[in-house]
Amino acid sequence: MADEVNESKSVDEGKENTEENIEAEKVVVSEADGDINAVEAGEETAKPKSKKPMIIVIACIVVVLIACLAVFLVLNEKNKQAHVPVPVSFAFEASGYDPQTGSGIPIHVEGVDLDNKTVSETLLVDAGSPGLELLRGSYDITVAGSPVTGSGGIYAVPDTVTHIEIAEGNVTINGESFSFDQNEGSPIELPVVVFTAIKPQDVTDKQIVAVRAWMGDVGFGEETIDKFADLIIANKKAGIAKAEEEKLAAWRTKISGTFSGVGDAAGPPSMRIKCSLDGNKLTVRGALVSKGGSYLSGSEWHFILTDKTRYSYTEEITRSTTRSDFVQCFPSSFVVLDIEVQDGYVISMDTHA
What we know:
rod-shaped, alpha+beta, 6-stranded antiparallel β-sheet, 6-stranded mixed β-sheet
């Protein structure tokens, strides 16, 4: 009986344990379901947001960058155009000057360019040649010295100042404005500068020094400078000789023949002649008679002695003498002076004691 009771208790306890286990499993399953639901809820929360706003932002940034780049390129191109030098052409009037053989014409440029940089330069140009290029800006252009011709001629330096202002699409020269398209490539033509030639005989040492100075400023070598300076000096000497010839030609009495005159040693004063020498110039004043015996009209004649003039004196016989001996005793007293002249040049002179 007791064993039956114990068995009954064991059965009851097993049932209770089984029910507890079942309840525990339910709780575990319920908790698991809760976890699963929680996980599913978390997965729904972690879903990615829409990408459209980000794409719009990126697109806006790209558009801004492209716009900035476009503006930069436009400004950069405009800046490049503004810094393209503009050719400038010169026109000169200088009698006897040939660009093929001359020195070139020195000019000086002083001013400020578009970058506010000071410009001060001496350079060489020639007529019609765009030897100068300027950036946009404001400049004064002057002639820096006299050009030299192939034969050594020089000129008075003009004091002309050409003021030029170069802007975008516009140029102002000495206050007169006109439109200008730089893209056409045509040079700006400056007003004509006129040079006045200096007579070779009037060239001064100071002017030669000035020419040497500007040639050094533009970079001429000493050999070239000396060559042009020697040309100027040679041209000056030739000019002096030519000027003297022209003076003598104007001074000379252009007659031909053999003439005579009575000196202080014979004849009345009204029938006498007076002679004076100044280098090669012989002046005769008074009553000069032609070989035929007629008096020449006028009272003063100018003759020129040359290297070929012959000199002699006659006493009982005629003797030749040198010019120095003849001149040494001339114009002292003589009885008669005979002069043979060809176009005012003395062929021979003879005195009678």
